[in-house]
Structure formats: C-alpha cells, structure tokens
Amino acid sequence: MKLEIKNLSKKFEKKEVLNNINLEVESGEVVSLVGRNGSGKTTLLKLITGIYQLDIGEITIDGVNIEQNNLKSNIIYIPDKFDYFKYTKIKNIIKYYELAYENFDKDYFEKELVKNKISLNKKITELSKGQTVIFGVILGLACRTNFLLLDEPLDGIDIINIKLIINYIIEAQDSGVGILVSSHQLDYLENISDKIIYIDTTGKYGKEVDKMEYSKYQLVYEDKIPDEFANLDSVRIVSNIGRVYVVLVRGSFEETRDLIQESAPLQCDELPVLLEDIFIINDKGGAEND
C-alpha cells in the first residue's frame, strides 16, 4: 500500500504553516521528517490523521482519498504527549482503541506491557517519559494498521529506551507497516530510514535529503577562505575556526574537485557527510507552528 500526500498546504489564520508538501510512504518503509521546532512536522501528522483540516491538497491511500471508505482506519497516529488521556488508566485507554481499530491486538499489547514492566492500572501521569513513549509505540503497533505515524518518539529519553523504540520501529517495518516518524535524533533516524524529508522553517517546503548530493571537506587556507568560493550557491560553510574551514559542496566529483582546486587551499581533507550537516545548513530560523 502507498500513503501519498499531494500538494498539501495549511494556514492558521493568515500564517502559512505548510506550503505545497509532497511525500509518499509505502508499506514496509520508514520515512523520517526532520526540521526545527516550528517547521510544521506535528501539523503535518495531524493533517494526515484528520485532527486538522486541509486547506489545499489531497491525502490518498493507493490513489483513493482517505476520507472515503473508512481509509483513515488504516492509519494510527501516536502523539508525543497523551494529554487527552493523561489522567486515565491504561486499561481504560485501550477500550477506546479496541473500538476504533477492529484488528486491535490486545494480547500483543498486554504482553509487551508486561515485558516492559508497565502496569495496566497506571495512569499516563504516573509513567516516566520513557515509559510513556514505550506505551505509545506498543499501542500503535497493537492497532495493526498499515501505517504508523510517530511524533518525536526519541525525544527526551535515554539511550536504552531509544534503542528499544528503534527495535519496535524495525519490528513494524519488517511486518510491512509504513512508518512516518518525526524526530530530532538525526543519527538514529539516518540508520533506519528509507527516506528522509526535510521541512524548512521559512519556505515550508518538503524535500528528500540525499547525502550523495554533497561532499564534505576540511580546508586550510593561508589567510581565509576566498569569497568567490564561499559565496557560491553550491558551497556551504559548516564550521570555521581560524584558517580552518569545514565545507559542504553540492555537485559531481569532477565539479567539486575543480571548485576546491580553484580556491587554492594549503590543505584539503575529505570527511564523511553526516545528515546533521545537511540539516544545519538548510536550517534558516525558528517559527511557532509545531
């Protein structure tokens, strides 16, 4: 199956939050959303699930609008906080999900809670941050939907719980679930994602991040980096200490090599390109839309 977002735009009052977002999530695929707080990641997830209404655009599953034929039941959204249910015991929360999702796997849900030492009699407010996230992910998997949307599941939890959540995401992927996940934990997303979509905080566009478009170098100059090189559209300075510059250059190997040579550095060392580098150079400021 394929979940597709086409030309999606959203405004709150006169403030544009998302503009012409396009992306696809297929069965068994992990698609990660990256962007600063305020870039609209949470808004996008809420639009997909119908919590917010679209202004412009269409959301489809296998080409059919999700407003038809109860297609939304193929999607489960797990928020970063369970504010609506925070004073409710877990055993009562699952009653709602059993009604909403006909394939809800109660046995799996309870088994995984026991494994993680989370009591059905606990309220959300009585859980730690890590337990709340684990509960949410288990809940999402237990709904047995075709698509799972996770909002910041790796935020604010320790490394042990991050690895646990990653394993649950991989479990879902292996079972054919399409997963759309937002997070600031770029290193972990990079390792599990089939596609990474960057949402800009100013242009509000969504584009797929491809590290192969870039090369990364540490350059040492006699004085400073030449302006004619630094100001090229294809060149981004990642960091600078004195006469030492770390730069990303977009283009083919031949183009990149020629540009570097023309800038006449005293020393040139190639470095591995990190997802975080691309995130930083594309990020142009904050907003208040998430």
From TrEMBL:
SUPFAM superfamilies linked: P-loop containing nucleoside triphosphate hydrolases
Stored Gene3D superfamilies: P-loop containing nucleotide triphosphate hydrolases
UniProt keyword Nucleotide-binding present: yes
Assigned keywords, A-Z: ATP-binding, Nucleotide-binding
Molecular functions (GO terms): ATP binding; ATP hydrolysis activity
InterPro entries attached to this UniProt entry: AAA+_ATPase, ABC_transporter-like_ATP-bd, P-loop_NTPase
Stored Pfam families: ABC_tran
ABC transporter domain ranges (all copies): 3-226
SMART domains to which the protein is assigned, alphabetical: AAA
PANTHER family, per database record: ABC TRANSPORTER ATP-BINDING PROTEIN YTRB, SKFA PEPTIDE EXPORT ATP-BINDING PROTEIN SKFE
Protein name: ATP-binding cassette domain-containing protein
